[in-house]
Amino acid sequence: MKKYILPLSIFMCFALSLSAQWQETNGIYEGATVASISNSTTVFFSAGTMGLYSCNINDTIWNRLETTQLAKNFRSLAVQGDTVYAANSGYGFYVSYDNGVTFNNISTASLNSRQLLINYIGTDTLLFLATNLTGLKSSSDGGITWNTIAFSGISVKSLAIEDTLIFVSLGTQIHRSFDDGITWQIVRNGINNSLSDNLLILGTNIFHGTSSGISCSTDTGSTWTQRNNGLSDIRVTALQKDGTKIFAGTKSGLFMSQDTGQTWISMNNGLNNLEITTITIAGGKIYCGTLYGSIYISSNNGNSWTKFNDGFTANTCTQLISSNNRLFSVSRFGVYASDDEGDNWYRSDAFGSTDTFYNSLKISTKYPNVYACNENKIAVSNDNGVSWTNGQTPTIFTNMLCTFENDTNVLAGSSDGLISSVDTCQTWTAIYIDSSNPLITTLLRKDSMMLAGTRYYGIYISHDIGQTWSFSGLNGLEIENFDTIGSTIFVYAENSGIYRSIDNGLSWQMITTVGQRTICLKAVGQALFMVSPDNGILLSYDLGNTWTNVSGNLPEASVHAIEFHLGYLYAGTYSSGIWKSNYSLITNLTNGIKTCVSSIFPNPSSENTTITLNKNKDLLVSVIDIRGKTLLSEKYYEANKIDINTAQFASGIYFVNLKYTDFSETKKIIVTH
Fold first, then answer.
1. Rounded distance between C-alpha atoms, residue 234 and residue 212, angstroms
2. Which of 362, 471, 605, 667 is 20 to 30 A from 14, comparing alpha carbons?
3. Residue 4 confidence (pLDDT)
């Protein structure tokens, strides 16, 4: 994550990135897997673009390996003792000589890897690499240099090696070599090309698994027979052996054969009808990676399975939202909730499935109601995410993008315009915006005014809570999200920048010119946070004129979401889990720990608390509750003492933001009754 201040159209602010102390929360632990390998002590799983993980066979938690600052997509792995090889899907080959503790980038060649295997000739070690469009490659110097030995310009789908015998699948053909790849012979032709392609050698048996089932040859590939007896799903996605046993992963679970594929037995107790992507075996345990977000482990030969995800933070957090004392996180794998400030997360799945991939899942809340929409589905919870019911999908509307609860109805934005429901999302009616019927991306209510952001048609405004609409501005832009500070409205437009309006949406002023890499905005009291995948989290206390980077020790991963919850600021990342930092610490670090406050007394208080300043100051005082809502905001002139009536607040923790002309600071007060 690069840490520098964005150039602004109004004012250029040069400031050092502050060392805000972020702490990783305990989750979310799910992520898609693409490759796995193991040695006698350690299991390695690749989550593609989301990192490489390892786990000792006696441990119960995964460790993210620090290899991914340069390598972004390990598609193939191999291991030889404590030496671990990892090939990128594009450029680069990495080697660890200490069992994954440290990695070295020893080649920047374009490898386009699919599968990596090790073979031994006497005392020499050869690496073989099946690639996309660049044939079969080999390396005799540990991966430093690579030579194409066959099938140049062709994609090699899968690879199997036993001594000097090599089998290669090109999708429609299988080729065989008896001399380490020097000469080749076609041994199977006319195969239906399959996205899934796996080769496995077990003794004198060669197995070929595709989306059309499993074939076997007992004569080094000269003849082949189908061996699908017992496979309820013949769409084979992975093959692995353990002694004389063979395991076949499919799109709906795992199967095992103990008679060289003559018969297959389902081994899905606990796998929940999952698509298996990779299988590895170590220490008497079987590990299965799945497509939609989990690793499973079996310690009894596959008879039963349990999730094994602790520490496997290979997930993209796309949204964070606070609802009373519960924090929700949205990812590609569903909705999650935490009731203990991120110490533990559990699945709060809106659509009932425990392993489903969501392309555009978003939620909105108006406690205790929570709404979730994903493409053409919508779900409703009336108990803050504990239980869900499916709303009626409107047949004439597609691609649900956002929801918003009004006083008497629920609004939903879709690719076909704006719709409204007055019966808990069971029936829907269209709301006319204008003849363009724009795609609605985001909704905001400010008092009796509503704003609707669209894709390429700018912003529309309603002064009757969404019944009638008129054009507000920013035509041609893709509006992503809104937020407000007092009477000022902020909006982020993708590939354009951040804009603000001080006249209730009548006119808009650009305040940044680098919005291409901004993801969202979040206002907390007088503070405005901007999330950028390149620059992390930036904070402005002057309505977006100047910004300071508060990313601190956040990991080298893109930040995709931000939320204020119970006194903490939470950051959801692309591939490194969810992090939090004390809100007061962040805001005070922004000012270099400057303070004008000499005392706060009494604190805790039940009726009144007094904040005493060390000098007379002009300032704006805001009281913010633990969910980020501004409860009061008042200006003071030449003041050295601020009296706050705490009797009007419920018992709990509050934050008082004091914004002076030259800096701001935040203090915590406690109210008890």
1. 6
2. 667
3. 31
Q: What percent of the chain has pLDDT over 90?
A: 45
Task: Give the whole-angstrom CA distance, residue 556 versus residue 559.
Answer: 9
What is the rounded average pLDDT of the residues 18-33? 72
CB < 8 Å & 24+ apart, contacts of 409-412: 409/466, 410/371, 411/443, 411/466, 412/373, 412/378
Element (H, E) at 557: none
Cβ atoms of 286 and 298 within 8 Å: the answer is: yes
On average, the pLDDT of the chain sits at 85
Contacts of 433 (CB under 8 A, 6+ apart): 417, 418, 440, 452, 460, 469
Mean pLDDT of 572-579: 83
| 461-515 pLDDT tens trace | 999 888 899 999 999 999 999 999 989 999 998 888 899 999 999 999 998 754 4
pLDDT attached to residue 494? 84
Domain 317-589 has CATH 2.130.10.10: yes
SS3 12: coil
What residues does each domain of the chain span?
A: 317-589, 597-671
Write out the DSSP string of 374-438: EBTEEEEESSTTSS-EEPPPPTT---B-EEEE-SS-EEEEETTEEEEESSTTSS-EEE---TT-P
**DSSP-assigned letters across all residues of 310-345:** TT-----EEEEEEETTEEEEEETTEEEEESSTTS--
Rounded distance, CA 441 to CA 452, Å?
A: 8
Contacts of 593 (CB under 8 A, 6+ apart): none
> Is 577 or 139 the better-scoring residue by pLDDT?
139
Compute how many other C-beta atoms are within 10 angstroms of the C-beta atom of residue 138. Answer: 18
Beta strands in 136-184 (DSSP E): 136-139, 147-150, 158-162, 165-169, 174-177
Q: Which neighbouring-strand residues pair with 449?
A: 446
Rounded to whole angstroms, the Cα distance separating 305 from 308 reads 9
CB proximity list for 180: less than 8 A, separation 6 or greater: 119, 121, 126, 164, 166
pLDDT number for residue 394: 66
Give the pTM.
0.74
Asked if 511 contacts 545 with a C-beta cutoff of 8 angstroms, the reply is: yes
What burial class does residue 45 get, using C-beta atoms within 10 Å of its C-beta: 0-12 exposed, 13-18 middle, 19+ buried? buried
What is residue 185's predicted lDDT score, i.e. its pLDDT?
Answer: 95
Cα gap 222→219, rounded to integer Å = 6
Which of these, 298, 329, 293, 331, lies nearest to 312 by C-alpha position?
Answer: 293
Among 524, 553, 475, 532, CA closest to 622? 524
Ranges assigned E (strand) in 231-339: 236-242, 245-250, 253-257, 265-266, 276-282, 285-290, 295-298, 306-307, 317-323, 326-331, 334-338
Among left, alpha and beta (phi > 0; psi -120 to 50; other), residue 318 is alpha
Please tell me whether the peptide bond between 368 and the residue prior to it is cis, using omega within 30 degrees of 0.
Answer: yes
Q: How many CA atoms lie within 13 A of 369 on its CB side?
A: 13
**Could you tell me the sign of the dihedral formed by the alpha carbons of 290, 197, 74, 121, in that order?**
positive
CA 526 to chain CA mean position, Å: 29
Whole-number Å distance between alpha carbons of 474 and 617? 39
Q: What is the pLDDT of residue 630?
A: 85
Query: What is the rounded distance in angstroms from the CA atom of residue 359 to the CA atom of residue 376?
Result: 11
Fold of 597-671: Immunoglobulin-like (2.60.40)
Residue recorded with tokens 């924090």: 327
